[in-house]
């Protein structure tokens, strides 16, 4: 958008009010809602799998200790990274990726005409047994221990942040925010699933729990 308004590297046309509003919406959705939803789904899955709560707390104790969390320590939270990847696999906050064909594309006997808008169903791919095997619906963060693709038998089968030149520019920021917030929560509280919880994920622009996510939160005895 900015490139279209530039000549010889100089801005010659300002963005319209509509363009500014649309950009603000993009920043809100891409920079806030997606990370918040990923953290919400993480708390749910950790409430359902308390053994992973304990593993992450122990990792935090070893890596961070009693010091203030800062960016230099985040890379050491390996298991937390596995958990984030697995949450994004099971409940991707951005449930689809869009691309437009720049040229005619032939795939076997199928021809995709130039200009065709294509929607890639990330949720369906992440729950495809032929890609992930028999444990496709199980919460298993360890699948990302040795493989950044989580053992998916197709490297393009796991694209939580998109792919190619238009991959999410906020990927590193989102990971940093996620690890900092989750560290602060895990070192202060334990959480379990409320009996009133009703599992109801649905796609409404993003993948969200339509009936909320009630958890039982208790302070830790430090």
From TrEMBL:
InterPro entries: Cyt_P450, Cyt_P450_CS, Cyt_P450_E_grp-I, Cyt_P450_sf, Cytochrome_P450_Monooxygen. It holds the Pfam family p450. Heme binds at residue 168. GO terms for molecular function: heme binding; iron ion binding; monooxygenase activity; oxidoreductase activity, acting on paired donors, with incorporation or reduction of molecular oxygen. It is found in: Membrane. The keyword Membrane applies. Its cofactor is heme. Keywords: Heme, Iron, Membrane, Metal-binding, Monooxygenase, Oxidoreductase, Transmembrane, Transmembrane helix. GO terms for cellular component: membrane. GO terms for biological process: coumarin biosynthetic process. Belongs to the cytochrome P450 family. This is Cytochrome P450. It comes from Heracleum sosnowskyi.
């Amino acid at each position: 958008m900015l490139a279209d308004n530039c000549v010889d590297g100089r801005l010659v046309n300002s963005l319209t009010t509509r363009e500014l509003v649309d950009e603000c919406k993009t920043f809100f959705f891409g920079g806030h809602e997606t990370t918040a939803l990923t953290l919400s789904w993480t708390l749910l899955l950790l409430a359902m799998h308390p053994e992973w709560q304990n593993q992450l707390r122990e990792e935090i104790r070893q890596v961070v200790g009693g010091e203030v969390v800062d960016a230099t320590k985040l890379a050491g939270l390996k298991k937390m990274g596995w958990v984030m990847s697995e949450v994004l696999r099971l409940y991707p906050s951005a449930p689809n990726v869009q691309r437009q064909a720049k040229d005619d594309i032939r795939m076997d006997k199928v021809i995709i005409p130039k200009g065709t808008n294509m929607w890639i169903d990330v949720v369906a791919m992440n729950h495809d047994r032929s890609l992930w095997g028999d444990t496709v619906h199980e919460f298993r963060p360890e699948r990302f221990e040795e493989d950044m693709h989580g053992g998916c038998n197709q490297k393009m089968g796991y694209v939580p942040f998109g792919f190619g030149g238009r991959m999410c520019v906020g990927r590193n920021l989102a990971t940093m925010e996620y690890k900092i917030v989750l560290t602060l929560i895990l070192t202060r509280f334990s959480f379990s699933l409320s009996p009133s919880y009703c599992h109801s994920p649905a796609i409404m622009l993003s993948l969200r729990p339509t009936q909320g996510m009630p958890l039982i939160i208790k302070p830790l005895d430090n």
